[in-house]
Each structure stands twice: as C-alpha cells, then as structure tokens.
Amino acid sequence: MADASHAPTASEYIVHHLTHLNTSGEPQAKIVDFTLINLDTVVWSVVTAVLAAFVMWLAARRVHSGVPTRFTSAVESLIEFVHEQARSIVHGDVRNIAPLALTVFVWVVLMNCLDFLPVDLPGKVLAWLGLDHAIHYHRIVPTADLNATLGMSLVVILASIYYGIKAKHTGGFVAELFSAPFGKSIFLAPFNFLLQMVEYLARFVSLGMRLFGNMYAGELVFLLIALLGATATLWGSGLHFGLGLVWAIFHILIVTLQGFIFMMLTLVYIGQAHEGH
Fold first, then answer.
1. Are 192 and 177 in contact (CB under 8 A)?
2. 70, 96, 210, 237: which one is catalytic?
3. DSSP letter at 18?
4. Alpha-carbon distance 155 to 165, whole Å?
5. Catalytic annotation on 77?
6. What 3-state DSSP class applies to 22?
7. Catalytic status, residue 62
8. Residue ranges of the alpha helices (H) in 8-119?
9. Nearest to residue 44, comparing CAs of 101, 100, 117?
C-alpha cells in the first residue's frame, strides 16, 4: 500500500487496486498462487452466487397462468435459449446439464458485472465503515482472479469426465483414454493416453485463461481511465467521463460475451464427453 504521507503515483495506484486481500495478510505480486486464499474473491463469488439464486427463485415465484411480467418473460426466454443450446450440443439427457449451463452463464455474467462499479468505491465504503486500516487491499471482480477462473475451469473439466463415465461407463471411458485418437493398439496406447491428458490440460488452461484475460484487461483499462480523473484538469475530467462512458458501454458486450462463451464451452466439453472418438 502506498505511504499515506503522500499521494500515490500512477503505478502505486494501479498495483494497490490489483492486489488481493488474502489469507497471508501481505500483498502478493503473483497472479496465481494456490498456497493462499484470496478472501475478496471468495466473498464476492458467494455474494453473486446467492444473488443469481435469488433472481432465479424470484422468477420462479412470479410464474403464473396469467400474462407474464417483463422480468419473468426475460428469464423464461433465457432459460429456453440455454435449453435449446444444450439440446443442440449435447446428444443425451440434458435435464441436469441445461440448468448447469444456465447457472454458469448467470453466475459468470453477474461476477463480470461487478467491474462496472467505480474502482475506488470499495475503499470508500471500507473507510466509511472504519475498516480501511484493517483491510488495505480489496478487489471486487472474482473473474479477474486467475485462481477463481481456473477453479471454475477445473469444475467444468471434472463435470465432463463425470458425464463421460456416466455415458460410456467406467470401462468404456478408460478404454477410450488408451484407444483414441490413434486406434486400439498396445503400442499406441501410451501415445493415446498422453494426447488425451494434453487435451484435458489444454481445455482446463484455455477455459480459465480466456475469462481471466478479458476481465483482467477490462479492469486495468478502468483503472487507467480512473487515473485521468486524478489530473484535476478540465481535459482530464472530460476524458475520464467520456472514455469511461464509452468503455463501460463496450464492456457490456464483453461481460455478456464472456459469460456466453464460458457457458457454450461448458456445453461443448460435456457434449464431447457423450460422444465416442
């Protein structure tokens, strides 16, 4: 954290806002560290998960035989859209897969939407509550944390393995690990297994890195725009407002698109688990 005796420089300001509140109590420069728990990521992930569940519950409570409201119509349209995507991609029973995809989409979008909050708002709230001396660092966007996105990616990969075993049974799933893609041969089995592991690893890394990279970059742009407002000049304030508005509008597309891509890749990976090589 920058020394309170002087205003932070631009680099100090950015580094401070990109530092997590973690279990060590000390600032960490690493982007990913599995030895620590980023408490702010956990808290806001849970908050958005509860909010997503509440929105779905509220929509379910408002469904009735009469004319639906705009809110229920929007939720019903979203559910139908996700269900159609699940049926077109997964060749099997989607009664549990479609709700999983819907949960992924709504949850990821809500976590991404936290990026629209002013970057200095968490610090102001903590100061108002008198907690700024105890909590020096706080990041509010869970999907801008690689630990979180890789954790979500791992769950998707495990889900694809589960549905692969469910669809092909344990024997068929294990046999496919050693027989695809080069064919059934005792000499080719090690190469088949190695390629399968590389494929799972590539899915795991690419799925988590894609979401993290886009949200981290978006958060960084918001920080750079916020620095324009600190110039205390007319042109700086004007650029701060104008660029902030333009980027926020464009970021709406990024936030929604990243949730959609994560949901679609979840369905694709689970759909591939139902199919044989």
1. yes
2. 210
3. T
4. 15
5. no
6. strand
7. no
8. 10-17, 39-61, 70-89, 97-113
9. 117
Terminal alpha carbon distance of the chain: 53
The amino acid present at 90, given as its one-letter code, is: V
Q: Quick one: which H or E segment has residue 132?
A: none
The DSSP code for 26 is S
Catalytic residue among 24, 179, 214, 237: 214
Q: What is the mean pLDDT of residues 116-145?
A: 83
How confident is the model over 8-29, as pLDDT tens digits? 788 888 888 888 888 876 766 5
Single out the catalytic residue among 38, 96, 206, 237.
Answer: 206
pTM of the model: 0.89
Return the closest-CA partner of residue 204 out of 259, 152, 272: 152
**Distance between CA 100 and CA 84 in Å, rounded?**
13
Other C-beta atoms closer than 10 Å to the C-beta of 10 total: 11
Task: Specify the long-range contacts of residues 163-169, CB closer than 8 Å, at least 24 apart.
Answer: 163/92, 163/97, 163/270, 163/273, 163/274, 164/273, 164/274, 167/92, 167/273, 167/274, 168/276
Cα–Cα distance, 142 to 163 (Å, whole number): 27
- Concerning whether 210 is annotated as a catalytic residue, the answer is yes
CB 38 within 8 A of CB 147: yes
The whole-chain average pLDDT of the chain stands at: 88
Of the candidates 255, 259, 256, the one whose C-alpha atom is nearest the C-alpha of residue 217 is 255
- 3 state SS of 185: coil
What would the mean pLDDT of 143-148 be, rounded to a whole number? 93
